[in-house]
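Q: Entry one of two.
A:
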Amino acid sequence: MADPRLGKDVSNGVGDEHAESKEHVYLEETFYILSKKNSVFRVQLTSNGLTLTKETDGNSKEQTILLRDIVGSKCMRSKRRRPGAGSCVCSFVSQQQLKVVEENSGDLDENDISAYLYIYAYILKRSRRTMKRERTTITLRFRSFDKYEDNNKEAQKWRSTIKCLIAGQPITYVPPANDKKLLILLNPKSGPGKARELFQTKVAPILQEGEIPYDLHVTKYAQYAREFVRTRNVYGWRGIVAVGGDGVLFEIMNGMFERLDWQQALAEVPLAILPCGSGNGLARTICHLYNEPYIPQNLTGMAMALSRGKSAPMDVVRVETKTQIMFSFLSVGWGFLSDIDIESERLRAIGGQRFALWALARIVGLRRYKGTVSYALIKDISNLPKPKQPLVLSHSISQDGALDSPDAEAFIDCDEQDSNVWTNSAGGPGRHQRVDSWYSVNSRRSAFYSTRGSEYHSVTSAGSEMRSPVHACMHGPAPHLPALMSQLPAHWTHEQGEFVMVHVSYQAYIGEDLLFAPRSQLSDGVMWMLIIKAGISRSQLLSFLLGINNGNHAESNNEYIKLIPVSAFRIVPEGSGSGGTLTVDGELVEYGPIQAEVFPNIVNVLVPDLK
């Protein structure tokens, strides 16, 4: 057995565009494959990730599993065999027979002194136009010593190093301690109503693999999430996660701004979203900006972000109407798109397709709205980010189906076709022959419903959905704008007349398939205002809707359509709200004057790890 070597810098020969020119080697072992003569595997744990080098008859092939694709690891022991189950597990003649359990399980095989390290990764596979994530399990078997405790100590060394690297902490061979849980607030009625199922099958297993505990609360009535975060000690959680549509996060964020300690709370406790609704604009934007595959009802990438714990700042927009103040992270809309968003609620059961169907209906019955639109134009756009082209993901996958994870009884079985047993000939007095195994398997479907150390709080009262939240005072940063009905600054631009719509977004996407503002970043201090004036033909409007799917509309400014960067705006509709709709982050607000301004870097959100 090769002793682990620390502090070694080597050149990285992996042809991965994200790999660094040099990497730091923390642990290294050499393995031999029993089933193939003259084959050697060298496994290195480096600052880049896990490097696997296969050497056969002078030929070398290398694969690196990047650190950012690894979510966690776990040490296990082999499971006790029942009478008549076959040959002794120590022989490992058939790796398909291997089953493992946790160290404290009453069903472990005390005759097998091996320690098994399972490393869980979701490898990002790229092609010319698509991306996908494939689940891979790497298993290292440690059996160099004649006592399980010694073998386990060696396995734990690898596990601790991996956890320290993931957490970005110094290597101490002691797993970094973080006992804080995630707070999960889940709306079971978001979108088509599959949030609970999606969380259990696609998110909980990844949190389990990353050893991330959580408290799961199912919302019981409107504004439940808002009231929850306003009244609880949020500092006891490592982050607050909205599971549902953008509306759940809207509640959470505004509940945070209703706290007297809003500034400290938002600085110390990041927010996150798992998209299970119909629109899912913010989640789609995050995946777009961080090159993460986004597939509807597939939460792998966003769940990995929860496990890795990396955060980024995000702008928020302070919105003021006649009777309320709120904070927004997505958009403010008046007219066409807002009408579609609200009126298509009756088709919620079909998911995101409801928007396309209702858009056709609104084109046929096209409406006009009178009013005045005023805005503070950002004149110098030369320093704004260049548009980011969306990736085509229609045929890609990102860990489709339920994940395979351990429960209290058993773990995964080896895949017979992909399994190899490796060993080296190094031995000595009091030592067993080295028998380590490494193999990679794709996930198989299985049920998983809880994570150890986590709590599940479900609905307890059937009649509680009608409860109204207690009135609270909105805090947050002080406004720079004059009062809603006061005169605006002289440098503002004013447009008066009839409009089909005015929609302002501060995220790249306002829906899964609506690339509204291609230049938008999470934190850039810019809002993008789209104005469509009355007089546009139905065919032009349809062409616009088709172009917004891929952002082509952004360069098609004409006498009826324009997309402009602004730092603040005011919309004053004429007449009552009987024929029009105003929305903030997809939520209906009172029809009347509304104004907003952007505040950069107020909120931190969990994002995929780019390292």
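Q: Entry two of two.
A:
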Amino acid sequence: MKSASKQYLHHFLLKPHKPPSITTAHLRRLTTTPEPPPPSPEHQSTQSIITQLNTTDDWPTNLHHQILTLPHESLINISKQFNTSSKALQFLQFIHDNNTPSSIHTSQSVSISISQSFLSSLFQTVIYLATHEESQKHMPISDLYNLSKKKNILLTPRSAVMLIKYFFAVNKVQDSVLVYNGLDPDVKTIEVKNAFLNVLLKCDRFDNAHQLLDEMLQPGEKFPVNEATLNIVFAVLVRRDMDQKSEKLVGLIPKFGDFGVFPSTIMLTQLITKLCRCCRNDKAWDLLHGLMKFGKVETASYNALLSGLGRERNYKRIKLLLKEMQENGVKLNVVTFGMLVNHLCKSYRVDDALDMFKKMKEGEGTDGVPIKPDVILYNTLIDGLCKVGRQEDGLVLMKQMKSEDDCVPNVITFNCLIDGFCKSGEIERAQQLFDQMSDEGVDPNVITMNTLVDGMCRHGRTGNAMEFFRKIQEEKGIKGNVVTYSTLIYAFCNANNIERAMRLFEEMEFVGSPDARAYYGLISGLTLAGRPDDANSIATKMKKAGFQMDLLCYNTLIGGYCRKKKLDKAVEVLKDMEEVGVKADNVTYNTLISYFSQNGDFDSAHKFLKQMIADGNSPTAVTYGTLIHAYCLAGNLDNALNIYEEMLNKSKVPPNTVIYNVLIDSLCKRGRVEHALSLMDEMLQKSVRPNITTYNAMLKGLSSKNRLRDAFRLMDQMTHQACNPDFVTIEILNDWLSAVGEFEKLREFVQGYQVS
């Protein structure tokens, strides 16, 4: 047979022969997709077995024989094609029960030898099907896990990952921990560790996560950290608020470099930015320097730290970091310089910002390659110059800006300069710049208009501001916004032109919703104009518009009603204030105590004093002084002195000059000069300096009792304290001393003084 084959092959290769003719059928077979080869008998057998296993629960004996004679690969393929996890589990149980130490094939029985890894692979399929089913109708996942331990079936890394993730998804984190802790060390691959680490971090178990990372970062670790590990850690750190636990994880990141794992520039920049915004500049500094030794830090990450240091105004570290950038060959870019210039300008270190700008243009810190400044950098410098009152230098810089290619001043440039001139009161120069904008083809915006309107209003040119506003509306088509109207309303209220302010407020309601400043401007203006009821109507509108009245607004209304002696209305405002949860302060209570006591309603005044203390507001010198003054005016000097004693003994508030003056004047008017003198001595003991009002009251009281010796003592005291007499002093002493023949003493007293 072999000889014949050899002869045929020799004949076919050496003897010339005519090629076979190509028919249409041949061409059709060559030009169409070849038909797939018929399935092998083994494949047909496997498909038949899968169909039977999926459609029946009671497997016949002949099917058992067919299953057990298949190779392992076919058995694994069968397990993957079950409809449910319960079928796959039944199949696993069948394989497990027919497992023997060695293969035996007899006519009576068939069994197979199965390795642990094979059973683990089959069990992995069961877990996969179970964790992907909508509900575990047949066997819970926890029971499956317990079954694997009972049957001594080791988990594969994939099985472990699925179980860890599943238990986390159903809020059984402790089961995830049990799964991980029960794994064989060889099964704890990097994929398993990463899955477990992710669960720990998401469940805020940072101490356990830190311990796991420590293990993965040990030298010689079989399954060390990889890029996926770093991504898991970064995702949590960027999302989470910074605290001590987070900071401990940040401290581990440089250790990843020992395993050749480094964060991307974007990731590192994000984390440094977050640390700096959370006031953790020291941690950001340590993180950056921990990675710098690997040479894996780029300019963007340095810029993020420079920005944080700039906000902190830590110029010592900024200087050091810039030096390190140069030493490490990291090139500064326009963003770096722009950021530094911005922070220097915000700190009013404009000269340092100009030096930085000069270095950038000369190429210092960039290997001698000059960096061309952009419009943003020029605008930052111009704004910084204007904020320190150097508008002229800003104009020079704008001219320099025009000399640059493709660097044309824009509306922001002009707005900065206009704002600077407006704040310095040079309104005409600001208007000239506004006209220059049109000449250079730069369209003004609503900010330009608002800046000029605000500047005019601040410098008492509200009428001009109104004319400019109407003019720019007509000529430029720029409509005023809430800021424009609020500024004008506030200015007209301060100028006591309430009617004009009201008309603007009504116009504003058609243009857009008034803001809190507009409402408060009207409330304040109407109150000062003695129209608290109208102010209260505006306050009602304010609340309907969704704005919450603040303490200042309520105090303004209460003060307005008190000045008009509408004390009941003032109390109503106080009640409304308490209902909405705005807590009254000392100003609120002092206003009410003052006007109720002046009105003679001391019971109400004391009621508010008690309420003031109950609300946690300590009475002030104004509080006690108001009551003392009111009692003195009402002729109730004893009650005034009682308040004074209460102030000395129960409060920590020392009496001031005004309170002493009120009491001394009242005592002297009622002939109680001795008591008044003791109060004046007490003033000096408490280091409260008497003023001319104190001395005039005392001298007038002494003159009524003709107590010359005490008067001379006080006159010497005035000279010693350099307290200049006024016309009231001279009038009192002239009438008294002339009448008693002591005119020479008066002449010596007033000699050298400029009587006010």
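A: Comment on entry two: The mean pLDDT is 83. Residues 116-132 form the longest helix (17 residues).
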